[in-house]
TrEMBL record:
InterPro entries in UniProt: DNA_glycosylase, Endonuclease-III-like_CS2, HhH-GPD_domain, HhH_base_excis_C, HhH_motif, MIG/MutY, MutY_C, NUDIX_hydrolase-like_dom_sf
Name listed for the protein in its UniProt record: Adenine DNA glycosylase
Family matches, as CDD domains: ENDO3c (cd00056), NUDIX_DNA_Glycosylase_C-MutY (cd03431)
Domain HhH-GPD: 217-394
UniProt-annotated stretches for the region Disordered: 18-76, 487-506
GO molecular function: 4 iron, 4 sulfur cluster binding; 8-oxo-7,8-dihydroguanine DNA N-glycosylase activity; adenine/guanine mispair binding; metal ion binding; oxidized purine DNA binding; purine-specific mismatch base pair DNA N-glycosylase activity
Entry annotated with the keyword 4Fe-4S: yes
Organism ancestry: Eukaryota, Fungi, Dikarya, Ascomycota, Pezizomycotina
The EC number(s) this enzyme carries: 3.2.2.31
Entry keyword Acetylation: no
Length: 678
């Protein structure tokens, strides 16, 4: 009997070890653990699965490898624990080491596995909102990431707090695109937009155009920069129809300086698709209302579609940009790689459920009455979405600025904040209170597979030194307790939520530093592709003009002007080449380029000016810049035929300055001007 209890203790200890990777393995203590551990039924373990390969690796590393498995593999691992346990007569340390000997690679995320993850987090059958703060790397169940803004007993109060806060700050940054919502109820509920009043239709179409324009400009660009561009654009192209009729050059010139020029060309293409009447496949100048239709248009992704559907049409659709990702990963306490599909899908799902909850909050419809129905349209979804973004842009700041958690209207539902309070408490900066008084819950089957193992933290070491055994027992007890006490705890949580105490500035420093660990991005291991190209600034002697070239209408830097360039073969390393080889290459480029403008014979003086490195989103480019002066005056004069002049022409310095050029090419041009003493 004693031996059976000891074995149970070792098995249970090893189960906990799977989740607690910051705790050094230690000997089982059957006396101290027996009361809790005797409740664990070994029949939970499946003995049919056996390890096939064993590699001896250190306990910590192994724990890490095992921890990376999905919840479906946790069962397999516990089976191995049993196999080990029945053959091991030593301490739990040896069990853990043997257990850890079979690292299992994390399976690739599939639609089904992501759906399972979402179900585990959001559709938990027992009441939510009761998992205590337990910042990763501590063990926590997947349900820990169910937003407290949805599941806390006072969730509605906190959602309202964010809306109220946004109402109070929405005009402070004076964004011209923020306007009162036009009630689209008759419009959205109508089966055909043709039956809607014309003035409402025009007002909604205009609003949709403005929201689309502002959201497109705001991608990767600061609000303060966008405001001037937005006003200038609307003055020149006030409607979707005027954009559709504009020349590509005008569109690009209005965008000049904003960068990412493909946004402008796609916006232009979109207007040309949307403006024709429905019988010609268009939308009569009015953007469609649904996300499904919106994402089929050029330049509209999931985020922009959500913004148009919610801000313009009042539909309960999420919009998740970088700011919202930061706010929600902190609110949900998700420490997984924010670039991973799983984490992004969980964030989108949380955003979707939140905006739906906010839309329903504005009605008297009970939970039961919502089943199978779409939330009604109103200004609430758009206000909520913009509120989340505003919070991310002005309060929930990334490091090193640090979030202003003291000003946050939803800090009571923020996992990262709660975790920070817990760390500050451990450091003695916050008095023991509501946060630390709760027990940690560990549900092995539902253990989180999203959060990785971050670096060791001081607080964890302290805790490891002082309370490992006690904690393990508490974890297992809490696992069983939660089913019995969740109702009581929810009431207690509701009362505790009203605690007004504010942490000291020293404590807040610790808290906000912790919050800055979210969102987590796994360091990139993939190296960007590297390319080299030759950029040749050709000046003709007759009038000192330079030859410039227009890029194709599609692809990278579409429709932009540049100095003639030539991509070098991948196996040619320019800086390792001889002077003769470089000159030959320049002459070869010159020959091809000048032929296109009708110059067949020339002499030149050339000079290498330097290299401009430039990084695009998907590759790095080294641009080797050369200046070439053509010297045989008589033979240099042709500017090419009419058709060619649109793609290549001789331009003055002032004209070049006025053309749309990519930022990297502009730097090359600066180098040329510098070499000429301009
Ligand atoms: S409490 Fe702090 S970290 Fe959490 S959402 Fe608010 S500002 Fe962001």
């Amino acid at each position: 009997m004693v031996e059976t209890r000891r074995r149970s203790a070792r098995i249970a200890d090893a189960k906990i070890e799977l989740l607690d990777h910051h705790t050094a393995p230690e000997s089982a203590d059957s006396d101290s653990n027996s009361s809790a551990l005797s409740d664990i039924d070994e029949s939970d373990f499946d003995s049919d699965v056996r390890p096939t390969k064993r590699q001896k690796i250190a306990g910590g590393q192994a724990s890490r490898a095992v921890r990376k498995t999905r919840s479906t593999t946790v069962k397999t691992v516990t089976t191995r624990t049993k196999v080990s346990a029945t053959t091991t007569t030593s301490t739990s340390t040896s069990i853990t080491t043997t257990l850890a000997a079979t690292p299992i690679a994390k399976p690739k995320a599939t639609a089904a596995s992501i759906q399972a993850l979402v179900t585990q987090i959001f559709d938990c059958p027992f009441p939510q909102g009761n998992e205590p703060p337990c910042h990763p790397p501590h063990p926590h169940p997947l349900t820990y990431h169910n937003p407290l803004l949805l599941s806390s007993p006072t969730a509605r109060k906190h959602r309202d707090a964010l809306l109220t806060w946004f109402d109070s700050v929405s005009s402070s940054r004076q964004m011209p695109w923020r306007k009162p919502w036009i009630d689209t109820t008759p419009f959205v509920s109508s089966s055909s937009s043709a039956t809607c009043p014309q003035d409402l239709k025009e007002a909604v179409a205009q609003r949709a155009y403005e929201v689309l324009l502002s959201e497109t400009m705001l991608q990767q660009t600061r609000v303060s920069t966008v405001i001037a561009y937005y006003n200038k654009w609307l003055a020149a192209l006030p409607t979707m129809q005027s954009l559709a009729a504009a020349q590509p050059e005008e569109v690009l010139s209005l965008w000049k300086g904003l960068g990412y020029y493909s946004r402008a060309t796609r916006l232009h293409a979109l207007a040309q698709l949307v403006c024709p009447p429905p019988e010609e496949g268009g939308y009569d100048g009015l953007l469609p209302q649904t996300v499904d239709k919106l994402v089929q248009l050029p330049g509209i992704g999931r985020y922009t579609a959500g913004a148009v559907a919610s801000i313009v049409y009042g539909c309960a659709e999420p919009m998740v940009d970088g700011n919202v990702i930061r706010v929600l990963t902190r609110q949900l306490g998700i420490r997984g790689d924010v670039k991973s599909k799983e984490v992004l899908e969980v964030v989108w799902e949380a955003a979707k459920r939140l905006v739906e909850a906010v839309a329903w909050d504005g009605t008297d419809v009970t939970e039961d009455g919502r089943e199978g129905k779409e939330p009604p349209v109103s200004d609430r979804p758009g206000t909520w979405g913009q509120g989340l973004m505003e919070l991310g842009a002005t309060v929930c700041l990334p490091g090193p600025a640090k979030p202003k958690c003291g000003q946050c209207p939803v800090k009571d539902t923020c996992r990262a904040y709660q975790e920070g309070v817990k760390i500050a408490t451990q450091k003695g900066l916050v008095p023991e209170g509501k946060v630390t008084a709760r027990k940690r819950v560990v549900d092995i089957e539902d253990s989180c597979t999203l959060c990785p193992l971050p670096e060791a933290e001081e607080s964890d070491k302290q805790e490891s030194d002082t309370g490992t055994k006690k904690r393990k027992q508490g974890e297992v007890s809490a696992f069983f307790d939660k089913f019995k006490t969740s109702g009581t705890r929810r009431k207690k949580d509701a009362a505790e939520d009203s605690d007004p105490a504010e942490p000291s500035s020293a404590a807040m420093e610790v808290i906000t530093s912790h919050c800055c660990k979210y969102p987590y991005t796994k360091p990139k291991t993939k190296k960007l592709r590297e390319e080299e190209c030759l950029v040749v600034a050709i000046r003709r002697p007759s009038d000192g003009r330079y030859l410039i070239h227009k890029r194709p209408a599609k692809g990278l830097l579409a429709g932009m002007w540049e100095l003639p360039s030539h991509t070098l073969p991948a196996d040619l390393k320019w800086n390792d080449g001889s002077a003769a080889m470089k000159k030959d290459k320049v002459r070869m480029v010159l020959k091809d380029v000048l032929k296109e403008v009708g110059v067949s014979s020339w002499r030149e003086k050339e000079a290498e000016l330097g290299t401009v490195p430039w990084t695009f989103s998907h590759f790095k480019l080294a641009m080797h810049v050369w200046a070439v002066d053509l010297v045989k005056r008589d033979e240099v004069g042709s500017e090419g035929g009419e058709g060619n002049a649109k793609m290549k022409r001789w331009a003055t310095i002032e004209e070049i300055e006025g053309e749309n050029m990519g930022t990297g090419m502009k730097k090359c041009w600066e180098l040329v001007k510098e070499s000429r003493g301009r």
